[in-house]
TrEMBL record:
The chain crosses the membrane at residues 20-40, 301-321, 347-371, 395-420. Belongs to the ABC-4 integral membrane protein family. The lineage of its organism: Bacteria, Pseudomonadati, Bacteroidota, Bacteroidia, Bacteroidales. One of its GO terms (cellular component) is plasma membrane. It holds the Pfam family MacB_PCD. It is found in: Cell membrane. GO terms for molecular function: transmembrane transporter activity. Residues 55-260 form the MacB-like periplasmic core domain. This is Efflux ABC transporter, permease protein. Residues 303-428 form the ABC3 transporter permease C-terminal domain. It is a multi-pass membrane protein. Its main location: membrane. Keywords: Cell membrane, Membrane, Transmembrane, Transmembrane helix.
Length: 437
């Protein structure tokens, strides 16, 4: 059967030429469109390293001289600090709040800023100015119950349990699994020292599971520092973020309504005022939109849909004409006992061979394109070293997966586009099909 179909395609090569050329072009185009979709989707499904459910950011603002509510007498560091502590204590006393954190604005996921640093495993590397790992930096005030790890739901990489803050947090820090492995090659590093570029050393108090700062990015090596106090300034509203986690079983919608109606107005203390309450999911959506990720994905899906539509219409048109031209052949097959499934199968096999040959011809060019230009990678910081544990960071596996996805999508659409005219032709009665024979 395959030999007969191959001969049929070869004999009609001129008629098949235009759809074959379209398949070649769309094969290349579809591969380049699916590549970023695959990477962004794969990154999105990497475990975030924290629990976003029931997690909120309380955004505060501060009045300035141009505002009628500005209080000049309250505009000094000590009074600003006292006012901020009153706000913090009001938040932590709410019955729905389980834990909270006073985090810097770069120290919670999908926040508007990012902070990085150079971390060394020893002082010799600092002297040589090599051997460092570029790491993301988080800071929070570990005082009066403020606990970033408990609020975010970050866990110990070894036990999977809660990370315990040391009694004395000075000169101590927590690091991520990725940072520990890149510095020391192991996660058993509690008690060891790490150094910054200025030779300041901190002791590793714990190692947590890899953590994502952006949903569409991969986990970056991360170090978390702990402060023993907060500084006083009217800029605290923009420098700190108040993170709260709700207790299990709390009705989130009811909490939000009550908070905005009752709690929010109470937070207007001194020159500070309550701005908004945001879930971590809302932060994620906001950042994805502002950074262009949402529009990028929409564009890629639109381009893929356009390519798929072109192939669908092309296959429908080609096989509609072909089926009409081969009415006698179809009628003869039906008169000799061939069923509709057999007739449809022959045309589907023809479509499969066209798609497969076209994709195989284009495959070396796709490989050359990926090798020379590189496969798609998420735009991250200049010092980012991809983790080879993820398939999207391994060239061979990355290329194979995108190729399989592109070919599968192309083939499915082509077969659907072929089946419609083939099924219509197979329903033709033998006598009607052979009357012009």
């Amino acid at each position: 059967m395959l030999k007969m179909i191959f001969n049929q395609l070869w004999n009609q090569r001129r008629q098949n030429g235009w759809i074959f050329m379209e398949l070649l072009v769309v094969s290349f185009f579809l591969w380049t469109v699916i590549d970023p979709i695959y990477v962004l989707t794969a990154n999105r499904h990497i475990d975030s390293g924290y629990r976003p459910e029931g997690l909120y950011v309380v955004q505060m603002g501060a009045y300035n001289e141009s505002n009628a509510l500005y209080n000049k007498e309250q505009d000094n560091d000590s009074l600003s600090k006292a006012a901020y502590w009153r706000i913090v204590r009001l938040l932590r006393q709410q019955p729905e709040v389980k834990s909270y954190s006073i985090s810097y604005t770069w120290a919670f996921p999908n926040s508007r800023s990012w902070s990085g640093t150079q971390i060394y495993a020893d002082t010799a590397s600092i002297s040589r100015e090599d051997g460092y790992v570029h790491a993301q930096r988080y800071d929070f005030a570990a005082v009066e119950g403020s606990n970033l790890f408990a609020a975010y739901g970050m866990t110990d990489v070894r036990t999977g349990g809660e990370l315990k803050l040391p009694e004395d947090v000075r000169h101590r820090a927590f690091i991520s699994e990725r940072l520990a492995r890149r510095l020391f090659g192991t996660i058993d590093v509690v008690g060891r020292k790490v150094y910054q570029y200025n030779k300041e050393d901190v002791e590793v108090a714990g190692v947590f599971r890899d953590y994502k700062h952006r949903d569409y990015e991969q986990p970056y090596p991360l170090i978390v520092y702990m402060d023993t106090d907060i500084y006083g300034s009217k800029y605290m509203a923009w420098d700190y973020g108040l993170i709260i986690r709700l207790k299990d079983g709390v009705d989130a919608d009811a909490f939000e309504r009550r908070f905005k109606k009752e709690v929010g107005p109470m937070l207007s203390i001194g020159n500070f005022y309550f701005d908004k309450l945001q879930t971590f999911s809302e932060l994620s959506d906001t950042y994805a939109a502002q950074s262009g990720m949402t529009n990028k994905l929409r564009l890629q899906y639109a381009l893929a849909s356009f390519a798929v539509l072109c192939i669908f219409l092309g296959m429908v048109g080609t096989f509609w004409i072909r089926c009409n031209a081969r009415r006698q052949e179809i009628g003869l097959m039906a008169s000799m006992g061939a069923g509709r499934k057999t007739i449809c199968r022959q045309f589907l096999v023809e479509a499969w061979m066209l798609v497969t040959v076209a994709f195989a011809v284009m495959l070396p060019l796709l490989l050359h394109h990926a090798w020379v230009n590189g496969v798609y990678v998420m735009e991250m910081k200049d010092y980012f070293v991809p983790n080879p544990d993820y398939w999207q960071n391994r060239f061979g596996m990355h290329f194979l997966l995108v190729t399989v996805l592109s070919y599968s999508l192309l083939l499915v659409v082509a077969l659907i586009g072929t089946y419609i005219p083939a099924y219509r032709a197979a329903r033709t009665l033998p006598a009607e099909a052979l009357r012009d024979e």
